[in-house]
Design a protein that fits this description.
This protein has 307 residues and is α/β, with parallel strands linked by helices. 44% of the residues lie in helices and 20% in strands. The strands form four sheets. It has a five-stranded mixed β-sheet with strand order 4-3-5-12-6, with helices on one face. Strands 10-7-11 form a three-stranded antiparallel β-sheet. Strand 1 and strand 2 (57-59) form a beta hairpin. It is rod-shaped and about 105 Å long. This is LysR family transcriptional regulator.
Length: 307
């Protein structure tokens, strides 16, 4: 069944045509579809819209009044769609709200999006830096970037890069405390602990050939990975951090990677958006740009830090 707006559109075309067949030709539908639309409107209004004979179809008095009232209403609807589809969407104007972890937002995302936003100043970027994965619908999030796995099937997600976890420390700390022989040996050394903001617990350390463990007596505890990385660089602790935060420091010699043979399987860096309705042109542009260039942006960021 057609919606009422479409029924009125068919009726107005029939009223302006010499026959239902001519109206059907103009609309690209069958004459039977025009007849059904008119009959449905007559049922809804309880009034005849046309007087029919074997030779002609003529508007009734009620049908004449209805055409006069329907034309401006339909014109307003057309103007509404024209204004928004030809205006904001076609010019990419409007807000794009994103959520991303703090370290990725600071290090990678803003520099990556800056050229695109300069090219399209009508896009209004609303960036929320948060390590907690928010409900995209409730928070009105258009695009999100996270590390781990996608548990919610209501999201459309795409993996863009593997993220390796690396255990690192400064040469000075290792000279003072000694090298660990295996992952369990780490517990005797000063370790960092990262607090999970979702539940207040400490994130465990992961390894390929040993069970995960939580540092029993951490030398440094924080709920911010950037602070954890700075603590490692200052020689306060050994930390297990994602590769994009430490690769450049390893290359420069400021940090040393420990127990690489025990490194766990890499995690997935993924970009996602809610699976609902049509995607505005501005959101599609940003999403496609990130899907295409986000993975390579990490390598560029590491190269810049190493110089």
């Amino acid at each position: 069944m057609l919606n009422r707006t479409e029924l009125l559109r068919i009726f107005c075309c029939a009223a302006e045509s010499s026959s239902f067949r001519e109206a059907a030709h103009c609309l690209g539908i069958s004459p039977q579809a025009v007849t059904r639309a008119v009959k449905e409107l007559e049922r809804l209004f309880g009034e005849p819209l046309f007087h029919r004979s074997t030779r002609q179809v003529q508007l009734s008095a009620f049908g004449t009044r209805l055409v006069e009232e329907a034309r401006p209403a339909l014109g307003g609807i057309d103007q509404l769609f024209h204004q928004h589809s030809r205006g904001r969407d076609q010019t990419l104007g409007g807000r794009v709200r994103m959520t991303v972890t703090q370290s990725i937002g600071h290090r990678v995302l803003v520099p990556l999006l800056a050229p695109l936003l300069r090219e399209h100043p009508e896009i209004e970027l609303d960036l929320r830096l948060n390590d907690v994965m928010a409900d995209a619908v409730e928070a009105q999030i258009d695009i999100g970037i996270r590390i781990g796995t996608v548990r919610d099937r209501s999201y459309i997600a795409r993996v863009v890069r593997p993220i390796a976890l690396q255990v690192v420390a400064t040469p000075e700390l290792l000279e003072r405390c000694g090298l660990p022989d295996n992952p369990l040996d780490l517990q005797r050394l000063p370790l960092s602990a990262l607090v999970d903001r979702n539940n207040g617990r400490i994130w465990p350390w992961y390894f390929a050939d040993q069970p995960q463990f939580v540092p029993s007596h951490p030398a440094f505890t924080s709920d911010d990975q950037e602070a954890e990385c700075e603590a490692a660089l200052c020689g306060l602790c050994i930390a297990q951090l994602p590769d994009y935060m430490v690769s450049a420091h390893i290359a420069s010699g400021r940090l040393i990677e420990l127990l690489p043979q025990s490194a766990p399987e890499p995690l997935d860096l993924f970009i996602y958006r809610p699976q609902r309705g049509p995607v505005p042109a501005r959101v599609r542009l940003v999403y496609d740009h990130l899907t295409r260039y986000l993975g390579g942006a990490f390598d560029q960021d590491e190269a810049v830090q190493s110089h």
